[in-house]
Amino acid sequence: MPSVNLRIIIVTAIAALAAGGYWWSHRDHSLDGALQLYGNVDIREVELAFRQPGRLLRTAFEEGATVKPGELMAELDAQPYREALAVAEAAVQGARADLDKLRRGNRPQEIAQADEAVRQAEAVYANAQSDFQRQSALAASGSASPRVADAARSARDQAEAALASARQTLALRKEGFRREDIAAAAARLAAAEAAAAQAKTALADTRLFAPAKATVLARLREPGSMVNASAPVYSLSLRDPVYVRAYVSEPNLGRVVPGTRVTLRTDSSAKVYEGEIGFVSPRAEFTPKSVETTELRTDLVYRLRIVVANADEGLRQGMPVTIQVGEPANGK
Questions:
Q1: Cβ count within 10 A of residue 201
Q2: Do the beta carbons of residue 39 and residue 323 sit within 8 Å?
Q3: Label partner for 237 (CA 20 to 30 A): which of 5, 55, 118, 190?
Q4: What is d(CA 165, CA 309) in angstroms, rounded to the nearest whole number?
């Protein structure tokens, strides 16, 4: 019987130790009371492309190169775009000249010419009026036939109409062009200027610049290639900001509020990185396979994003990191 009791005690002790070990290995670990989580480095990537189609003239960087913000990375053959801009600028000059002509009105010489035409019409009318009066008097005394008087009246009426027309022409020359014509010319100038601006933008788009500090992951096109608009030419890995994606279980959700300071460690170096929790997902999800703790693999967790303050080349895309959570930066 003693040996049986001893065996029971030994089995019970082993079971207790196993249960404790299972609990220890599957709970959220902590060091000195700080929550310890696991995550992966998440570096944003971007694909650079031209907004215009054309023949790729030059590429400036190879894979693995580090680029700075604003550095010229690639160029298209810009000759067609320079020619298109020249055509658009010429159209602007023509439209502006037409508008200036309408706004200034008729030239002084044209107004003087119309004024002289009025004086000539007045002289013709005066002569026709005098002839009509004379022929009318002769017809009344019987010295001339009524037909001659009628011809004189017709000539007088024609001269009067010509005088009225000459005066209207002079008034139009003095008044200038219609407001509607000027407005239409102004609209044509605005359209020409907009087309020139588009041509200038298209010319500028033949040069591709780095949007931020980044590492070239891949050069996808070679000089001489014909590329379409939005076809990727480079794939970049941005160096700033660098994030860490991690997951936390619901019982520890209150310890990872935004603003909480954390420290991060990798398996490849002894350097300690500083970070701050910037986002906690409001929605629970099943833990992805990349999370290392066995317990969390079947639980619902919340995704959080950590902004790394002192990131360097030691952090690579997808690298696993260990996160130690401290106190919130705002003291909460």
A1: 13
A2: yes
A3: 55
A4: 85
- How far apart CA 172 and CA 165 sit, in angstroms, is 11
Query: Tokens representing 138?
Result: 């002769």
Which one-letter amino acid corresponds to residue 316? R
Q: CA 199 to CA 78: how far, in whole Å?
A: 11
With a CB cutoff of 8 Å and minimum separation 6, the contacts of 149 are: 132, 135, 136, 138, 139
Compute mean pLDDT per 10 residues along the chain, 332 residues long, and list them.
55 50 42 76 92 96 93 96 97 93 78 82 83 77 74 84 83 75 91 96 96 92 94 92 90 88 90 91 74 57 91 87 73 44
Instruction: Name the token pair of 261.
Output: 């300071």
Structural contact between residues 212 and 239, judged by C-beta atoms closer than 8 angstroms: yes
Q: Which two tokens stand for residue 276?
A: 């701050």
Burial 114-123 (b: 16+ CB within 10 A, else e): bbebbeebee
Q: How far is CA 238 from CA 5, 45, 51, 309, 321, in A?
A: 66, 6, 21, 14, 19
